[in-house]
Amino acid sequence: MLVRYRKDYEKIAMGLLSFLPELRDYDQLADAIKISMDQNYQIYLWKDTEDNHFIGIIVIEVGKKYVLVRHISFTPTDRSGKNVYALLTAIHEQYREKRLMGTLKTQPLISNWERNNER
């Protein structure tokens, strides 16, 4: 289930983002969270519907015609294609009129998700 980031989720968000190698430093994590204050950026958390715990996070940049996935991270035990695809599908449904795109790091996930949805 997609949940929009709120300030009281900061520790959870920082914990989930800390699984990314490029965001292991506290200052980098804090910067990634601060970005949500910019109106063009959004952070969403992904909640497991079975046990109601947050298991993933996505940081996106929303443009006029696109949604750029900046960061996506899951807990180590929940990094399955099923969870990643479900989160990307939820983002796509949230921004239906926009094209889902990725950075150099996230584009392979987007491409695999698109191929999976073509079936």
Brief synopsis:
36% of the residues lie in helices and 27% in strands.
Walk me through the structure.
The protein has 119 residues and is α+β, with helices and mostly antiparallel strands. The protein has one domain: Aminopeptidase. It is 36% helix and 27% strand. It is built from four helices and five strands. Strands 1-2-3-4-5 form a five-stranded mixed beta sheet, sandwiched between helices. A hairpin with a 6-residue loop joins strand 2 (41-47) and strand 3. The chain starts with a strand and ends with a helix. The mean pLDDT is 91. This is Reductase.
Keywords:
119 residues, alpha+beta, Aminopeptidase, 5-stranded mixed sheet, 4 helices, 5 strands, 27% strand, Reductase
